[in-house]
């Protein structure tokens, strides 16, 4: 995509490897909120094929001020009002390619207000999702479950049903729908092989599990937290989360996650472990 100059003298363009230093500097403004995009950037070096999407940049007076990741998710980063207008205009023209818009509350709310007429209706809007962090030096305040460990490659088929159940419960649709079975299994297998899938497995079934879904610059993001429904309310998830933090800290010193504000039980668990809120995300689901 060629650069597009607007009346505000800003330029929107697809970024590539030569932009890596500027992109990393922009992401470093908030490593927690920008963990997902940073993970894509760090693993791909801004090679579009390896990144699984495009990273758009908005430049004003020669300075990179805003980013928008466009892949399976649409993720805004540090967007200025001018950048939001330019990003939204381009998104309207190319049509919706993503299954969700997710990111900092203000960025998502404004982008969605500009895109709703052409991209809507949304299947669901999660307007308030606390972003929570436990920093490198913060103690884990609960006893950890030593039976929670890294999942082995020969246990992928045991882990998969729990991952599907969690995703379906959380998002409202199965990740296997519409031809998604093979890509979803490949994603879970990748997490297992990289040592980023954790679970307590007994007698061939998953009791509790979680994954580190993104690894940014000094920060990782825990996703997919799940306990078997028939075992909830027994404190298993609390102890499991304590162990997940310990295992995740072997990947990066700071551990983050985000959670729906209406999930009071989960929020209470994370607070007891030692997480605290640093920002608020929103998600628009299609």
TrEMBL record:
Q: Which InterPro entries does the entry mention?
A: Acyl_CoA_acyltransferase, DUF4081, GNAT_dom, UCP21603_acetyltransf
Q: Start and end of every N-acetyltransferase domain?
A: 146-286
Q: Name one GO molecular function term.
A: acyltransferase activity
Instruction: Report keywords, A-Z.
Output: Acyltransferase, Transferase
Origin superkingdom? Bacteria
Q: Which Pfam families match?
A: Acetyltransf_1, DUF4081
Q: Does the keyword Transferase apply?
A: yes
Look up the EC number in the record and give it. Answer: 2.3.1.-
> What is the protein name for this chain?
GNAT family N-acetyltransferase
Per the UniProt record, the source organism is: Longivirga aurantiaca
């Amino acid at each position: 995509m060629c650069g597009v100059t607007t009346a505000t003298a800003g330029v929107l363009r697809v970024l590539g490897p030569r932009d890596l230093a500027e992109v990393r500097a922009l992401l470093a403004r908030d490593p927690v909120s920008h963990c997902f995009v940073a993970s894509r950037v760090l693993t791909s070096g801004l090679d579009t094929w390896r990144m699984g999407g495009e990273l758009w940049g908005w430049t004003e007076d020669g300075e990179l001020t805003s980013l928008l990741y466009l892949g399976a998710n649409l993720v805004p980063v540090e967007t200025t009002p001018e950048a939001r207008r330019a990003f939204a205009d381009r998104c309207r023209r190319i049509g919706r390619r993503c299954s969700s818009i997710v990111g900092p509350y203000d960025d998502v709310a404004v982008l969605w207000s500009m895109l709703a007429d052409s991209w809507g209706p949304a299947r669901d809007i999660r307007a308030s999702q606390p972003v929570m962090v436990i920093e490198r030096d913060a103690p884990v305040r609960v006893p950890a479950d030593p039976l929670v460990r890294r999942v082995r490659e020969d246990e992928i088929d045991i882990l998969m049903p729990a991952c599907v159940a969690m995703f379906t419960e959380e998002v409202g649709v199965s990740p296997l729908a519409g031809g998604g079975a093979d890509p979803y299994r490949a994603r879970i297998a990748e997490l297992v092989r990289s040592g980023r899938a954790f679970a307590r497995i007994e007698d061939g079934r998953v009791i509790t599990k979680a994954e580190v879904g993104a690894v940014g610059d000094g920060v990782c993001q825990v996703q997919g937290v799940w306990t078997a429904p028939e075992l909830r309310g027994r404190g298993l998830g609390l102890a499991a989360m304590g162990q997940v933090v310990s295992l995740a800290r072997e990947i990066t010193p700071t551990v983050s996650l985000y959670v729906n504000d209406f999930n009071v039980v989960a929020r209470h668990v994370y607070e007891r472990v030692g997480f605290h809120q640093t920002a608020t995300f929103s998600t628009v689901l299609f």
